Prior knowledge:
With about 400 residues, the chain is mainly alpha-helical. The protein folds into 2 domains: about 180 residues, Up-down Bundle (Growth Hormone, Chain: A), CATH 1.20.1250.20; about 200 residues, Growth Hormone, Chain: A (Up-down Bundle), CATH 1.20.1250. The protein has 17 helices and no strands.
Amino acid sequence: MAPLLGVSLIARIAITADTTALTLYIVLGLGMSYAAAGGVAAALTAGLAVGGPVLGRLIDRRGARPVLLASVAAQGVFWLCVPVMPYGILLAASFATGLLMVPGPLVTRQAIAAMTAPAQRRAAFVLESVQGELSYMVGPPLVILAAAQTSPGVVAWGVGAAIVAGGAGIALLDPPLRTEDEPDPGQSGRPRRREWLGSHMVAVLVMAFGATVLLGGTDLTIVAALKDAGQVSWAALVVAVYGVASIFGGLVYGTVPRPLPTWLLIGLLGLATLPAALAHSWPWLCVAAAGAGLLAAPTLSSLAAAVSRLAPAGARGEATGLQSSALSAGFALGAPVIGAAIDASVPGTGFVVAGLAGVAAALTGWLLSRRPAAVPAWSPPGDPGRAPLEACAAGASQGT
Length: 400
């Protein structure tokens, strides 16, 4: 597990920084507008959203190593050619590279479900969520710093090299994606989608979408609120406080004996985001960010754990890919929607809309998870015969 988390962190930091690297190349290297850079970032994000379940389904059928090696080759070609591509070709190629992005987080989440005992799984998913927070804290700032010291084209090559190295490292490790007692899909037949994509799985996907609408909107609103107060230079500190609080909250949550339902976690995250609307200076915004950040990593880890429990072994890749798509879609749509709310009112409105988005996702997830689930013909890993919806997924089946 330690080598897998270490190698996947390399890939994840680079993947997190890919849009920043492309933005800097287009603005500084090509001398074009931020709108043009936003078009490339949107194309890449759309590719990620579409490619998640497609790559996951391929992993279910062919295994992780062939898919990883194919995606590594595609990434190597794209990033090597970035400095010589004109904008029009770069725009189309960005969608393709998002479609074929190295599925490091996807494989890591599947491997966690296969390599850990039930008692260890929640803590392992917390570490994976903490890894995500570290990626956001390290990747983009590192790329910006490197771009100030060298050319944007060289930075793009560096990001591509890190993505290729991380993906190749995961392929070399080739971690198991199912436990010894789980049948191979080729032997047992692939489960039909309607057997596992029911109301409980839809509830988790809706909550994943709502969580990243909230998180993406919060980042944007922090910048907008501090710009309105004439303190925009403190935005990096506030975002860093949020990230550190999230890491701390995740590590603490991984040690608690009894998990909270996912719908409750995201609902609390939404409510904890609302007080930030009252903060009008960076010290108070740091306090508000610390309070809300404590719940971010626990929420994301609970979503990942829920997907691993609800999906059968033969469809876990596709289900994890759908989770990744929901997360990407939330980030892509959250910023423009909450940005429009900020433009129509005051910056603090962004925190209100982001928080209410989290509360709405929590209520939707709770209502969907209360619907009875059909008894599947498969059992979750390490827990044969038990219904696949555990307390951390929705909690409704246990009355919480």
